[in-house]
TrEMBL record, chains A, B, C, D:
Gene Ontology CC: cytoplasm
Principal subcellular localization: cytoplasm
Family, as annotated: Belongs to the glyceraldehyde-3-phosphate dehydrogenase family.
Protein name from the UniProt record: Glyceraldehyde-3-phosphate dehydrogenase
One Pfam family recorded for the sequence: Gp_dh_C
Enzyme class label: oxidoreductase
Length: 358, 358, 358, 358
């Protein structure tokens, strides 16, 4: 095997701790360490005794090591020293939105370390906004690559799946988005619905950083829930297709599962994954089978995006694509097999069940 | 003045108690009484001492009068006796969904009383599904008329407003719908998002009971909130129009208000009406000004529908149209002036404010 | 009649707009005007066209009058000018917590105007923390008086009612408190429970500003709801009493209602008041009848406190007591009859109902 | 090693799937199989491909095997056949409340199989309501044993810890209880607070099934959250103790953790365990350190009970105690080491941190 890619994860919140865990599962990567400005809940939960990242060296920046050590976190040294030592090939930056840009200028650029940024940063933070389904090869050799945020990632996967049926002429998505993550301290308005940002929401332009030619429009509604986003998409396909064609395209696409009618609501899906993955991570976009409707050139469908986990595979892909290039399918397969990402169906078709029951 | 229309309201829940109150405010109607099978919260809150319907005669059906009297409700007699007495011209039936159909066959048909039904009943319950904006005149002389439910009412008003700009070619609406009313006892799933019914949701076919030719598609998402529904509509207009045209069409339409950027979320709107109307009823559809976007032939907009109150004006219209016919505008104006229903803007344009502030 | 007390309300949020409305209903007071630093939702909803305070003069402070005028608010002048003119006897300060103290020093003290403060201010803001049940007479002639906040007001009323049965030896209250008001913009944690402040919570010491000798301990738990607080109190009475004694003491006490078993949850109570009072204000503390349990010397009971409205009567009392003194009962009765505050029972006793049904 | 205890788990919901998983981790037990009447979400999530119980034989009762097989569940046979075969020593019954009693009469009694029941069953279902801290030895040789429900389990642990300081004279607990589990389909009232059951709540009498002499009183308030219960307890200790004594007693007690001030709310605790255990199970009762207050003879404290997981260790203990008897500490230690149950502190003392920071 080749020399593994040496990765540091900077920012140990919802995304960072998951990326770090995922990196640690890659045979061709090594998790050199993690860093975060404060002993946040994410640091405490993942790095203290019994946590999934227990023992991973933590690198401090502008804070006292004892602040971390007394919480049971193993401190490896000072972040700047590590970055200057040449022992890090790439940082996955999962700092809160906007801090990544500053980190790039103050840290990564200064120490000549490459970086992957998250979708909370402006697209200009990087040379490329990355989607393994559309521009895997473009990432090779890049210094800075950005992985778009959860909702954009979800849209891109569905667009990729449906594009296998022909070029999409229009994509309109309404996003019912969770107002806060489960342990978010900043809070949200109780019992309230509101638009999230302007119209169109930023997701449309974010999709176009990857697919500039796509006719896409998005609106996001903030809803008082913590578990997941639910999208309703109306897509104008290149021609008349059957519902079966559409479902098959979705079922056979990487990182998409089709959830039968037994999965009625977001908690059903997340409960399913609680019984199989740490943190209940749902890496897959879960299409609600009962929602898939095709009339003429239009397909309507609804799917669930787990904001905490959906971008993790794409982050791992990005690292691999930047350093190793190669075949996109092979790269994604490496990610998916290491993380156990699935595709296909979660429950039997209703018709089938009904038939067998009678 | 003419002899007033003698109205009974059957079913004193969320809708029924509001219709009864609204009837009592009409100069050309008289509220003969109300009825309900059980001493529900709606009965107790509206008819007991101090309630908005205090003193209105209550007619029992298959229950002991004392059950109501001991709760401070004035009992006028037995429902069947009243209906048989010829002292009721029309019943507004606001019983729970499905019971209206049974009431029609067991009561109204038997005693030869005309009736207005709610949208929870199947369209077949009545000869006409009514919208004063589209078929006011058709209601005259009808025996049974149905007023569609809150979300359909909201869509019909917006369609009416936008149709003033030309024929609509496509209407696609995603409804983020409240999962339960504020005091609903049946409950809802906490912290969950799910589709409400199939795809398309029933609202599309319900709109077509009024506008059979309309190309309309709807999807409803159930969200854990009690206050109001929020719609996101994408409409293909007959031609290219400006954002100003669209806003003007909405602002000038009856029973629609355009809420400036200061109204960010559903509670802001409902709080506004708490300071001006009993129960905080928002009879108007409230378009979020910041949501109105026009690109080419497409207009996208978002609006709030208060499920408790939005159908009240249309119920009053229906009664009037059935008995008096006449000019739709005059009929609706009678309703709106009695209830204080408004149109236009709720807050100044942001640009204007900004200009004056600087 | 005497010359009316000239009142200005400063701060038009949840409490301020209600106090202003209540002042306007008093025969012995006149609402000279209101003020608020910003055109907040409270200003907009209550003072613009159709609002309950439409036409009341608004006095600006450090802001452009046009900011209010363009929202349909009638501007009467500048706050400082008004205060300096001698046309205001007392300000009810309902500014956000902490601002009242600053207002006292910068405005009321400087212009020699008396003031009533809210419980969000430290007790030291005033000469007296006021409860009409315990120290009505002490308020006469005071310059600054403070009305404690909603939960403390609720506890004081219940303590007053139970004290009629003998001296209370211990009072322990757990407050399940709403995390945000219905239209709160600051938000709260979704799906979360947490302690609110330390243990004991500040309510215990706040109660003791009125009743220094009382053995009282409180703990507050923040819960994701907007409608009301729910208290569970365990009280050690001076001797052995029956459940009937305790319920009678509660039922016969001013500003307390006993809600029968039909009122199961906070929304049931608030829905009841939506049908009888603007904004659905519940001025009364509502004891849940089924919760009242007496074992030996201990009484356990649970009651609902509507955080938006419960302090309004006490604010009105405070103004009257400061200026007119006199008999507490007469003063409170003036408040209660003007606002329609009730006492007694909301629904019949279950046993009674059951007996009659059988 | 001895012959392992052969265990079947009947009922694969929230509790059953966790007990089954826990049984599978015991060196002295073998999970013979599981059963459930329907292919519920719990069955699907835990037993289908990738689930934590994948491959465990499923035994059907009154349902077609294909209903399970087509969902990827491996069917081992018919439940009655298995029970009649002598290959099961004990059933842990985790059926919905009330069904356990029926299962006992229809199944376990008939086939002479011993059983452990959950707290949703009446105490009379079993010969003993079990707490390993109080009556471990009494379970040996019993046919039917009942493990009390989550809140009672939490109270019993805290009582056990505090009893180490002397006999408790009074225990009063207010339970802010979650209204529904995360994926509950039955729903709950949104935005509502209500009492759960009567006063006292059933928890007090349930505690007394274990500790008949204890002076305990409980009240439960239902709150719209899914994650966990939060208790506020006020305990009269046998004498005057210091806060340090109380915290030490809690910290050193099995299955209790003391969560420092960094853990502010229920989601903080559950997020911590998501990073270390499948399903984020928190087996421990988590005392909020900042809530611990001692004044004179009274200790007040607040703690979090994870309703999904807290009873799992006690279920495992019950099986072991029934069959092996022996030393309680050794029995519990076997459970705790297999499941990774901890005790002590979750985060450093604030004072300590402050000291080091300065």
């Amino acid at each position: 095997m080749l020399v593994p890619i040496r990765v540091l994860v900077n920012g140990i919140g919802t995304i960072g701790k998951r990326v770090a865990h995922a990196v640690s599962l890659q045979p061709d990567m090594v998790l050199v360490g993690v860093s975060s400005p404060r002993p946040s809940l994410g640091v405490l939960s993942s790095l203290s005794r019994g946590g999934v990242l227990e023992g991973v060296p933590f690198y401090v920046r502008g804070a006292s090591p004892s602040l971390f050590e007394e919480r049971g976190v193993r401190v490896g040294g000072v972040l700047e020293d590590l970055l200057g030592s040449g022992r890090v090939d790439v940082v996955v930056d999962a700092a809160p939105g906007g801090e990544g840009l500053r980190n790039r200028d103050e840290l990564y650029s200064r120490y000549g370390v490459r970086a992957v940024f998250q979708g909370g940063e402006p697209a200009a933070v990087a040379e490329l906004t990355f989607s393994p389904f559309f521009n895997y090869g473009d990432a090779f050799g890049r210094r800075y690559v950005r992985v778009p945020s959860c909702n954009t990632t979800g849209i891109l996967r569905v667009v990729s799946a449906l594009s296998s049926l022909g070029e999409l002429r229009e994509v309109f998505v309404v996003i019912a988005r969770r107002a806060a993550d489960p342990a978010d301290r900043k809070g949200a308005r109780l019992n309230a619905l509101s638009l999230d940002g302007g119209v169109p929401s930023h997701h449309a332009s974010d999709v176009r950083t990857v697919l500039p030619w796509l006719n896409v429009f998005t609106v996001a509604v903030k809803v008082p829930t913590t578990l997941a986003h639910l999208h309703v998409a109306r897509v104008r396909l290149g021609g008349r297709l059957s519902r079966g064609d559409v479902i098959e395209a979705l079922e056979s696409h990487r990182r998409i599962v089709v959830a039968g009618g037994e999965f009625e609501a977001t908690p059903d899906l997340l409960e399913f994954f609680r019984d199989r993955r740490l943190r209940g991570d749902m890496y897959e976009v879960a299409v609600l089978e009962d929602s898939v409707h095709v009339d003429g050139e239009y397909a309507t469908l609804s799917y669930v995006v787990h904001q905490e986990a959906v971008v993790i595979p794409e982050n791992i892909d990005a690292v691999r694509a930047m350093f190793l290039g190669g075949d996109p399918e092979a790269g994604m397969e490496a990610t998916d097999s290491s993380l156990g990402v699935t595709r296909g169906r979660l429950a039997p078709r209703r018709a089938l069940v009904a038939a067998r029951q009678s």
